[in-house]
Amino acid sequence: MDSIDRKIIQELQKDGRITNNDLAAAVNLSPSPCLRRVRKLERDGTLQAYTAVVDHNKCGWPISVFAMIRLQRHDEATVQTFESHVRNLDMILECFLMAGSADYLLHIVGKSLADYETFVKGKLHTIPGIASIESHITYGTVKRDFQLPLE
C-alpha cells in the first residue's frame, strides 16, 4: 500500500459515497487510475464494505452493552459452537476474541433493559459452554470514530 492508496482510504473513510471523480480529484489522480486502485483495494480485502453509520437511539436501540464472556473450556468444539451462535444473533454488533480475563467481548444493543435481559436469558444463556457473562451497560458515548489514522 502506497501513499496514494492511503489517501484514497482516508477519503473513503470520511465519505463512502464520494463519487469516483471527486475521489480522484481529492487524491490528485485521474478517474480511471483512481477507480482501478479502489477496485484493487476492494479485491484484496483492504476495503471490506461500504455502510451507513446510524444513530442507535434514533433507530430504537438506545441500550448499548459490552458483555465479557468466559468459556468453560477452550476446546475447538466449544469455541466453534460459541462463535457460530454469536454470528447468528442480530443484537450482537461486534464480537472480539480477547486476551486477558475474558475470552470474548461482545457489543450488544437493546431496545430497553428488559429487552437486554430477555436476550441474555433467552439467547446468550442457551449457548453451550459459557462459564460467565459480565455486562457493562453504557450511559453515554464520548468518542465513536470509524477512521483509521493512516498518516
Structural summary, described in words:
- The protein is α+β, with helices and mostly antiparallel strands and 151 residues long.
- It has helices at residues 3-14, 20-26, 31-43, 76-87, 113-122; strands at residues 63-71, 92-97, 104-110, 130-137.
- A hairpin with a 6-residue loop joins strand 2 (92-97) and strand 3.
- Helix 2 packs across helix 3.
- The mean pLDDT is 96.
Question: Key terms for this structure?
Answer:
151 residues; 4-stranded antiparallel sheet; alpha+beta; 4 strands
- Major beta sheet, strand line-up: 2-3-1-4
Unreliably modeled segments: none
N-to-C SSE string, H for helix and E for strand: HHHEHEEHE
| Mean residue pLDDT | 96
Topology:
Layout: H1 3-14, H2 20-26, H3 31-43, E1 63-71, H4 76-87, E2 92-97, E3 104-110, H5 113-122, E4 130-137
Antiparallel strand pairs: 1-3, 1-4, 2-3
In short:
By secondary structure, the protein is an alpha+beta fold. The chain has helices at 3-14, 20-26, 31-43, 76-87, 113-122, and strands at 63-71, 92-97, 104-110, 130-137.
